[in-house]
# Entry
Amino acid sequence: MAPTAALFDLQGRTALVTGGSRGIGQAIAAGLARFGADVVLVAEEPDMRESVALVEAAGRSAERMVLDLSRTRDIPGAVEDLLARRQVDILFNAAGIIRRQPAAEFSDENWADVLDVNLTAAFLLSRQLAGPMLARGRGKIINVASMLSFQGGSLVTSYAASKHGLVGLTKAQANEWAASGVQVNAIAPGYIATRTTDALRADPARNAGILARIPAGRWGTPGDLVGAAVFLASAASDYVSGHVLAVDGGWLAR
# Structure
């Protein structure tokens, strides 16, 4: 068995992290860099200076890929250009959006926009990046699921559907690729303090109700996900496949 430090060592690996400009994606990118990975940061906005600085502060290189994941037709070409220049060993699908609207009034636009970013983009990226990983016999794909991968929520029809679908995608790809040395897993964050959850935390009644159900007694932070991210990206998880790891302060145990 490898020494403990070697199990989590990501030196010589390159991770592509979507949603890498802020929140969960930024924390994961910085965390992977601290364990030795170079990082390709994918985000719609070109200003990724803060994330780049965090990665470089860990002594690793950071490349910016400006890509609007809602424009799914642009993904294959962007990935092809990247792979022509460098190898990608770890894919972290952290990007996600949410739209809130009553189910009986849920618009086609709010359905399609969320499914494109949260599910279709993850499918396209994993399909394209898996090819070289399978040829090498080694690779890690990690999707960011949700508590709404297990529950229906309220006013978030497309988000819940996309996160349920992301777990299905994780398991389906894991079944086909595990024997070839590529592990596909997911992290299901609990209630994390990010821009996506601003509306919930700003509502005193909703905020109190959520906190009352979390055994840990607090909202999570993006940094709380780094340990799970490094584990699933490293050799420590080489026999873990098709798993959804909840990092939720105990939410699902209630």
Q: What stands out?
A: Strands lie at 14-18, 38-43, 62-66, 90-93, 139-144, 182-189, 244-247. The radius of gyration is 17 Å. The chain has one domain: 4-194+222-244. The first strand starts at residue 14 and ends at 18.
